[in-house]
Structures are given as C-alpha cells and as structure tokens.
C-alpha cells in the first residue's frame, strides 16, 4: 500500500511573511486578485494588512467577505458569482477556517463548474482540475486549512456539515505569519489551539497513521503543549510573544499530518454539534477530545502513552496504561487552563438520536481507530450534556 503526502508547493513562515505575497502573484503574471476573507477581519483592519501590500504593488483586487463562521452553501455560491463578476484570475484568502474553506470551494467550482451545486463536492469528489491559484493566509492558529486538502461546508437546509476531501483544493502557497494572528482574542486563541491539538492527537491515532505523519503529529503535540497557555496569556495581555509564534507553526505542522491520514470520531461529532447548534468548532473538538481518547484507548494505548511524553508528562515508572491515562488527564488540564467549557448546554435528550446518526454519517467517522456503535456515539454525546 502506498502512503500519500500532499502539501503546499511553497509555504512562508515567520513575522512579516505576508510581504512575500505580491511577488508570488507577480511572478506568475496574475492581474486581478479575489480577496476572500470574513467581515470582522475587514472591519478591524486585519485584511488591510494584505490589501495594503497589493495596493503598494499595483495589483488590482476585489474583496468578498460575506462569510459566516460556519460557512454555508449560499456563501460559496455567492462567492462563485462574485469571483466571476470581479473577472479575477487568482485568490488570496485571509482568515480562519471559515474564509479559507469558502475560498477552497469557490476555487474548485470555478475550474470545475459541474460541481456548482456545492453538495456534489462532499466526500472525495472526482474533480479534474486544480482550483484557481490560491495564496492562503491564516489569522487563527488552529484549522491549518492553508495546508490541508479538506474543507467543511454547512448545509443549512439539511442542518448538517459535510466534509470535502480533494487534492485539487490545496492552496499552492501558504503564508503563516504570526503577526496576522495578533488580534485573536483569548477565547479564539484557546479554541483554535485545542482544535489543532485535536488534529494532532486524532491524526496520530487514526487508522491511516504512518511514520511520516507520526513525525508531524508528535512534534505538533509537543509545540502546542508548550505554547498554547502562553499564547492565551499573550492574547489576554495584548503583548505578543513566543507562544503565538509557536502556535502558528504547531497548527501548520498538525495540518501537514492529519490532512493526509484523516481524523476520527471526535471530529465527526464536533462537526455535528457545529451544524446543529453553531458551536465553535474548536470548542466542540476540545470538549470531546478526552472522551474520544478514553473511548479509543483500548486499541491505541501505546500511542496515547507517547502522546503523554510529547505533552511533557514524566512517565518514568508508569505502565503503558498509566501513561495513556496521563495523556488524557493532560488534555483535560490544558482545556481547563485555557478555559474551554466541558458541556454543551444546547443538547437535549430529544436530539441525541439525530446527533448520533449525523455524526456516524460524517466523513471523518470511518478513520477512527476503534469501531464505534450507535450506542457508543450516543454515550459520548451524553458525557457533554449539562
């Protein structure tokens, strides 16, 4: 069996990296950029850090920012029409997963118009052409959408999220500049950081894990464990530091791994919570992470023991089983330290059946290392009920 790795053609990392954007566009001869971002980033001047560079370079652009936190089919179809109206030839997407996921879907549909209904992109769609040339600039340290071959869209009509997996959607260039993350509030810093940790731990324990992805995931777990608390503290104080820089790199490294090997039951359940209750994705992942780890522990005990070591736990003298438990405890403590809630108050008994069925239909579900039954999944949802 061959193991596949798909990454950006080029990625830039470090403070001030956004200065490379105009050159990447000019060298390729692009004339009109479609800037895909979210309304708050426009409102608070974050997107302007990039568009100012385009202005200085004399590169024309059009801004599209009509995007919800959990982007919808309508956001995508409106974006496709906006791209066409702008007569653009390239995309620069600025934001968290919402903006980048929307940009991926727009870019794919422009070059593969037979998928214009958006729903047909669910799963592994047989697109033939790579998306419009895209430069992705993350403003949160969590989703790693700038390097992944995945994106998630909300179907409002059917009250569900669907995952799209397509090598044709990967942005050619990623620009991971921690200065673009400077305005993240503490809560968003915490939730996106825990999303990145979930990516790393689920990716390390998924059915598809192998040596190269393990390397990425263990390093990401180490960096997140060292830097997330500091990043949250920096967000509260407004004083930038090494925590934010560490998280910018860590979330990208996690994306290098999980994008290529898949995720598991945590993400399938988290997608369901976001679709039904608009729960922030990172919060949903974080609430469920220790529960999913506990469920999977019987089949990934040795791997969880290595997670404990990566998180900085001294496992000297512990059995493998004890070290695995220590990993779960370390995840719980990190969530507490960055103020992640432990319950989803919106869940009611009447909704459990629908939530469970939707989670089991999610594209991430088959990657879980332990087979989960209907009763297993419902039981995990019950653990985060008020």
From TrEMBL:
A Pfam match: ADH_Fe_C
Residues covered by the Alcohol dehydrogenase iron-type/glycerol dehydrogenase GldA domain: 11-178
GO MF term set: alcohol dehydrogenase (NAD+) activity; lactaldehyde reductase activity; metal ion binding
Enzyme class, first EC level, given as a word: oxidoreductase
Matches recorded under PROSITE patterns: ADH_IRON_1 (PS00913), ADH_IRON_2 (PS00060)
Translocase recorded as keyword: no
UniProt superkingdom: Bacteria
EC number(s) stated in the UniProt entry for this protein: 1.1.1.77
Residues covered by the Fe-containing alcohol dehydrogenase-like C-terminal domain: 189-384
UniProt KW keywords: NAD, Oxidoreductase
InterPro entries linked: ADH_Fe/GldA, ADH_Fe_C, ADH_Fe_CS, Alcohol_dehydrogenase_Fe, Lactal_redase
NCBIfam families documented for this protein: lactal_redase (TIGR02638), PRK10624.1 (NF007911)
Family: Belongs to the iron-containing alcohol dehydrogenase family.
UniProt-recorded name of the protein: Lactaldehyde reductase
Species whose genome carries this gene: Collinsella tanakaei
Taxonomic placement: Bacteria, Bacillati, Actinomycetota, Coriobacteriia, Coriobacteriales
